[in-house]
Amino acid sequence: MTSEQTWISSQRAVISQYSAKIESCIEGGAWQMLAFVLRSRECYLRDLYSGTIAAQFKPEMTVLAEEILGQDKLLNEIVETQKNIVRQKQLAFGRNKRALSKYDQDNSY
Length: 109
Prior knowledge:
By secondary structure, the protein is mainly alpha-helical. The chain is 92% helix and 0% strand. It contains 4 helices and no strands. It has helices at residues 3-28, 31-50, 52-56, 58-106. Helix 1 (3-28) packs antiparallel against helix 2 (31-50). The longest helix has 49 residues, at 58-106.
């Protein structure tokens, strides 16, 4: 493996770690940690793509950017799924709360 391939592989590994942390935060509902991880990843990517090394490996960096966008699309789908789950729980909670209220009204003496 050439030094260029090694460098690209190491960048992919770092980005993969960020994706795993982001997914873990989303699935665990760790929203404050998610915000921190996203800011950290943004700084990392900004540094990565603004350096002279990025210009040196432009074709590889383009492929890497496309992979990141693909990962972000999957993470967005996970977030949407979590939002739907929360929405369903909120609706069920509201129905249960109204039912309990009605029960209390019907059975008050």
